[in-house]
Write a structure and sequence with these properties.
The complex is a heterodimer of chains A (about 625) and B (about 120). Chain A has 19 helices and 23 strands. Chain A folds into five domains: about 120 residues, HPT domain (Four Helix Bundle (Hemerythrin (Met), subunit A), Up-down Bundle), CATH 1.20.120; about 90 residues, Alpha-Beta Plaits (2-Layer Sandwich); about 55 residues, Helix Hairpins (Orthogonal Bundle); about 180 residues, Heat Shock Protein 90 (2-Layer Sandwich), CATH 3.30.565; about 130 residues, Beta Barrel (OB fold (Dihydrolipoamide Acetyltransferase, E2P)), CATH 2.40.50. In chain A, helix 3 runs antiparallel to helix 4 and helix 12 runs parallel beside helix 13. Chain A is of the alpha+beta class and about 625 residues long. In chain B, helix 3 packs parallel to helix 4. Chain B has a five-stranded parallel sheet, sandwiched between helices. Chain B contains five helices and five strands. The chains are: A alpha+beta (about 625), B alpha/beta (about 120). The interface between A and B is large, with 50 and 49 residues.
């Protein structure tokens, strides 16, 4: 049988088990006197072992097996687990993860695990309770009668048969159905032992003949040889190894309706998504054609195609939705390792694990979140001494949460640490000339802008945890590429929170089409709050910038004509699109709004010098390419 | 008519593999269970001709599931799926009423032999 077809399934499922392994280890570490997690860990490791053995990944199976041995003695020890053992198990989890990847890739040959295997074995011996480690065994219920009566039967189990003792038990049970069984040799305990060689004998008091006895013995499976003596006067029959007990399999038949879930290669979904993207574009063109034609039948078809495409699109987007825990689950371990390394005490909590995001979005947020979590632990949370001195609990708190807000998902990393030192950042920003020298208060808005500048960092020293200057700027760049945004809130002494706001799906978004001069642009509706007409008497100036009075609110105004340097004459009536990113709002002035459309987002590599206000490009229903405006770059 | 099978294992990988082996040999997989509790429930609902039962599962292990199933249907045909080195557990399962066992790593021919013995 071709095992390769199962490799991907093996890998993804093993990952899930190893994730459980890590989670439970963390639980265990928090309450080492409670041995409850060990059962779950044992199960996870055991399952990995079985799967790996089936795939022929001997190294994985071996490592899992030794870990299982250790876990087995630890769970019987009833003692509080030591930090050493936990550390060893953490290392084992890491090694298994690495080894699984290497094995699937066929590159496990070079991996040397001798050190870890030895440590596991040593620990297993050390942790074993002084009394016998043998688990209490249940007796085989067959009683050895003092008087040998009945026919003597000698059986040899096939040498290559696994668990020969269990096989022998099946033989005995089959015999029990024929008559009373006595005089089992060796004793049941020896048959059950790992060293049992597969040869045993017994007597059975039965009316059936030798042939039937032999047939019944062989029906138990894996029987090499059966010898039946005739103590009762009947002819003894020495049976030679017969043909295997394998019976012909039933007629192959189509397995009907068995699968409710299947696993699909992610690339398939991506291809499907791209195709549907093309279909959406084609649908747009069809709609445009039918609108300009008098043909009623064409209009009918166009409507039908449109409905079908929409349904198809909704289905495929749903199929791509993945709960965030698939990325979040590795973070508890990361935070733990980091806080140990830095000598800090951190309580880490994850909320909203079940919130779903497009797989493509989810795949992109892992790295940014690692940056933010590292920052929180490294720069945010103070050392325990400093915290107690400031009247805070010694253990810092870091919360990672996901929250669905209409078409976006907000992912927040929050700490209760020292907060960002605005004074210092303001000073540094002025020195570097990245901020107006007249600014004297760094608002949250300005703060995120300054931090998002490439290479900006005020970390006093370079640590191998947060590195230098690679952090918020990387996060901000990535968020922009995803059509999302970054917000920051920080209070000195009480903590910092970073919020990433992301579209639920990347691939297809609904966009507003706008025109400036002769050019059209698409603006995703994700961040559009409302649209109003620009009335000259509602425009005012605040701190030297144009602003719009909207009801009782003052919105900064951004004129796309000015940004793009459009020279064509402006129309007299122009609309304002109110953009909203979290708490930040701004008005975008354009020449006209020309409609709404579903657009397929294609990322693009902007040439040098391109204004940072575009997040990608798309092709409209009429076949025209347009640039997609990035609300994050405009607000 | 082909025999109906309920496949019980906490690993999708294992369920997939066992299901594939049996489906290719013409069996009809009528259900899958991930826990012992599910196995017992689904046995009651589906009344399959054969059950393949993993030993180590969360939420009631395979051996307890065998006991529960045998309680409701003493004629239940249950094939245990075990890993190497689980002799004591397999013995316990057989005592509890399981009819046969196969040992991981699975060889399709071995699995089918065991299934035939159980159904035979």
């Amino acid at each position: 049988m071709d095992l390769a077809q199962y490799a991907e399934l093996f890998r993804s499922e093993t990952r899930e088990h190893l994730s459980v392994f890590n989670q439970l280890l963390l639980d265990w570490e928090r309450t080492p006197d409670n041995n409850e997690p060990v059962d779950g860990i044992f199960r996870a490791v055991h399952t990995v072992k079985g799967m790996a053995a089936t795939m022929g990944y001997a190294k994985v199976a071996d490592l899992a097996h030794r870990a299982e041995n250790l876990l087995d003695v630890v769970r019987k020890g009833h003692a509080t687990v030591s930090a050493d053992i936990l550390e060893l198990l953490f290392r084992t989890a890491d090694a298994l993860e690495e080894l699984v990847e290497a094995s699937v890739a066929g590159q496990d040959a070079g991996m040397d695990l001798t050190g870890l295997l030895d440590r596991l074995d040593e620990a297993t011996v050390r942790e074993a309770p002084p009394e016998q480690r043998d688990r209490p065994r249940r007796r085989i219920s067959f009683v050895n009668a003092p008087v040998a009566v009945g026919r003597k039967v000698e059986v040899t189990i096939r040498a290559d048969s696994a668990l020969k003792g269990a096989r022998a038990l099946i033989v005995l049970k089959r015999m029990d159905a024929l008559g009373a069984v006595h005089g089992i040799e060796p004793a049941p305990a020896a048959i059950e032992s790992e060293t049992f060689d597969g040869r045993f004998a017994f007597r059975v008091e039965t009316m059936v003949d030798a042939q039937e006895i032999e047939a019944a013995v062989r029906a138990a499976g894996d029987v090499e040889r059966v010898t039946i003596d005739d103590d009762q006067g009947a002819a003894g029959a020495a049976a030679t190894p017969g043909p295997g007990t394998a019976a012909a399999a039933p007629e192959p038949r189509e397995a009907a309706g068995r699968t409710r879930h299947i696993r699909v290669d992610l690339q398939r979904l991506d291809t499907l998504m791209n195709l549907i993207g093309e279909l959406v574009t084609a649908r747009g063109r069809l709609a445009a054609l039918s609108a300009s034609s008098e043909d009623a039948a064409l209009a009918d078809v166009a409507v039908k195609v449109s409905q079908l495409t929409q349904a198809l699109q909704a289905e495929i987007i749903q199929a791509r939705m993945t709960p965030v825990w698939q990325v979040f689950d590795r973070f508890p371990r990361l935070v733990r390792d980091l806080s140990r390394q830095l000598g800090k005490q951190v309580g880490f909590r994850v909320e909203g694990k079940e919130i779903e995001l497009d797989r493509a979005v989810l795949d992109e947020i892992g790295d940014p979140l690692v940056h933010l979590l590292r920052n929180a632990v490294d720069h945010g949370i103070e050392p325990p001494g400093e915290r107690t001195a400031a009247g805070k609990p010694a253990e810092g708190r870091v919360v990672l949460s996901a929250l669905r807000e209409r078409a976006t998902v907000a992912i927040r990393v929050e700490d209760d640490g020292r907060g960002i030192d605005r004074e210092k950042i303001l000073l540094e920003a002025k020195q570097r000339g990245v901020i107006d020298p007249e600014v004297d208060v760094l608002t949250d808005d300005l703060l995120v802008r300054v931090l998002s500048r490439a290479g900006f960092s005020t970390a006093r020293e370079v640590s191998d945890v947060s590195g230098r200057g690679v952090g918020v700027d990387v996060v901000a760049t990535r968020m922009r590429a995803l059509g999302g945004s970054v917000e920051v809130k920080s209070e000195p002494g009480s903590g910092t929170s970073f919020t990433l706001r992301l579209p639920v799906t990347l691939a297809i978004v609904r966009a507003l089409l706008v025109r400036v001069g002769d050019e059209r642009y698409a603006l995703p509706l994700t961040h559009v709050a409302e649209t109003v007409e620009l009335k000259p008497d509602a425009v005012t100036r605040v701190e030297g910038r144009e602003a719009l009075m909207l009801r009782d609110e003052v919105l900064p105004l951004v004129d796309l004509r000015e940004l793009l340097g459009t020279s064509a004459p402006a129309p007299t009536r122009r609309p304002v699109i109110v953009l909203q990113l979290g708490d930040r709002r701004a008005g975008l002035v354009v020449d006209a709004m020309t409609g709404q459309q579903e657009i397929v987002v294609k990322s693009f590599d902007p040439p040098r010098g391109t204004l940072p206000i575009f997040s990608g490009a798309t092709i409209l229903g009429d076949g025209a390419p347009v640039l997609i405006l990035d609300a994050g770059g405009l607000v | 008519m082909s025999h109906s099978v309920l496949v019980c294992d906490d690993a999708i990988f294992m369920r997939t593999m066992i299901s594939d082996i049996l489906a290719q040999a013409g069996f009809e997989i009528v259900g899958e269970a991930e826990t012992g509790v599910q196995a017992v429930e689904k046995y009651g609902q589906l009344k399959p001709d054969l059950v393949t039962m993993d030993i180590v599962m969360p939420d009631m292990g395979g051996i307890d599931a065998v006991r529960e199933i045998i309680k409701t249907d003493p004629g239940a045909k249950i094939l245990m799926c075990s890993a190497m080195g689980q002799q004591a557990l397999v013995v316990e399962a057989i005592q509890a009423g399981a009819k046969d066992f196969v040992v991981k790593p699975f060889q399709p021919s071995r699995v089918l032999e065991a299934v035939q013995r159980v159904l035979g």
